[in-house]
Design goal:
Layout: H1 6-9, E1 11-12, E2 16-20, H2 27-37, E3 41-43, E4 47-48, E5 63-64, H3 67-75, E6 79-85, E7 88-93, H4 94-102, E8 106-110, H5 113-123, E9 127-133, H6 137-147, H7 152-166, E10 174-177, H8 181-196, E11 202-203, H9 205-213
Parallel strand pairs: 2-8, 2-9, 3-8, 4-5, 9-10
Antiparallel strand pairs: 1-11, 4-7, 6-7
Length: about 220
Amino acid sequence: MPNIDPYNVVQRRGLMMVLSSPSGAGKTTISRRLLESDPNLTLSVSVTTRPMRKGEVNGRDYHFVDLTTFDIMINREEFLEHAKVFGNYYGTPRGPVEETLIEGRDVLFDIDWQGTQQLAEKAREDMVSIFILPPSWRELERRLFTRASDDPSEINRRMAKASDEMSHWAEYDYVIVNRDLDKCVDAVRGILRSERLKRRRQVGLSEFVNGLKQGQ
């Protein structure tokens, strides 16, 4: 009797994997490593009103729009979630995400706790949330200063906001302390592997099992 591989027979609905953390805790680096190593994972490209930074590409890093356009998208209910962060607006466009999930591919979200709460209200069954914590307050501060992408006033503002952001850790499905980047990435990959195998994500599984019982 031939071996039956359910991963090839049963289709899978994609999942939404949310990574959140205070600035400097490592979620952007973790996201990049996951995307580089997993072709079935795609990044949700947010819409934002903040100015484009040097080296960024419109449509790859963000969809950059003005405030009027952003407000129109809100009124048309085109966002799965949206929030104001550090004086700028960010939102996740609904259409591309839903299409990707139907195709059986997974979407990675680099969003804050406000966006995560909204996403959970609209699509909790599709969502897996992970909060990344720094190993210490001092290390978080060091990382922000050494990456040198923001001026000192911006860094101080991010540090002041970090305590509030970290207070939402208990709202997430998983919490990882980023003491070692490689181990942290491996932990996130392990979560992704497990979540992909959950019964509710395997479309047509009941029919497949019934076929097995009938000798098919």
